[in-house]
Amino acid sequence: MATVLQAAVREDLRGSRLAKIRNEGNIPAVVYGKEFGNKPVSVEEVAFIKTLREQGKTGVFHLEIDGQKTDVMIYDLQYDAMKNQYIHIDFYAADMKSEMDADVPVQVTGESKGVQDGGVLQQAVYELSVRALPRDLPDSIEVEVTDLDVNDALLVKDLKAGAKFEFNNDPEEVVVSVTPPDEEPEEPMTEDGEAPELVDGDPDAEPEKSGSDEEKALEKEE
């Protein structure tokens, strides 16, 4: 049974009304699409969070507005970390028979050989652009890194596209890599291959001035 999320049409579009909607436990939103047009709505926050957990950001579900159900997916989410709440949603009214582009999160799995040897895993891309029919969009792109050694990298072209979707990114774009561990800076050496001697153990101390005892006595008198 397809998930159905109830939505109410927003007639009053004043900014002050948005705060009231949120205080009542709802989230302001907008639904738009090529054939659908543009319609401001609001959805109940608890119901939306449940739908998001079930369907993911790329999942397609029914949004019911005034008794009419429309196939939608979440196109954009605005989240206020300070208030710990979603403050706005963009729903896309999907044409289920036409391919579309969507950003899909990258999920790194496994522990690379290079990391076990002290290397550092660098994730360069956290989302990949994918083209597919709405119902064929993946929830995430799994990137297995177990075989990556130090100085190895996985490019977009190394990932396997699904039977029903393809990548839009540059095939040569780096997704993850393993870099060498940070090296300790070497101490400066003397010509004899030994570390220079510190004055009184203080690296910032000034070296003792050279000169005769008479010159030192004159300096003290001055």
Automatic annotation (TrEMBL):
**Compositionally biased region (Acidic residues):** 181-205
Entry annotated with the keyword RNA-binding? yes
Q: Which domain of life is it from?
A: Bacteria
GO MF terms, alphabetically ordered: 5S rRNA binding; structural constituent of ribosome
Gene3D superfamilies annotated for this entry? Ribosomal protein L25, beta domain, Ribosomal Protein L25, Chain P
- Presence of keyword Thylakoid: no
Domain Large ribosomal subunit protein bL25 L25: where? Answer: 5-91
GO terms under biological process: translation
Q: Which UniProt keywords apply?
A: Ribonucleoprotein, Ribosomal protein, RNA-binding, rRNA-binding
Give positions of region: Disordered: 172-222
Sorted alphabetically, which CDD domains does this protein's record hold?
Answer: Ribosomal_L25_TL5_CTC (cd00495)
- Compositionally biased intervals (Basic and acidic residues): 206-222
Q: Gene Ontology terms, cellular component aspect?
A: cytosolic large ribosomal subunit
Span of domain Large ribosomal subunit protein bL25 beta: 100-181
Q: How does it assemble?
A: Part of the 50S ribosomal subunit; part of the 5S rRNA/L5/L18/L25 subcomplex. Contacts the 5S rRNA. Binds to the 5S rRNA independently of L5 and L18.
Q: Give the function comment from the record.
A: This is one of the proteins that binds to the 5S RNA in the ribosome where it forms part of the central protuberance.
Family membership noted in the UniProt record: Belongs to the bacterial ribosomal protein bL25 family. CTC subfamily.
From the Swiss-Prot or TrEMBL record, give the protein name: Large ribosomal subunit protein bL25
Organism this protein belongs to: Salipaludibacillus aurantiacus
Q: Which gene encodes it?
A: rplY
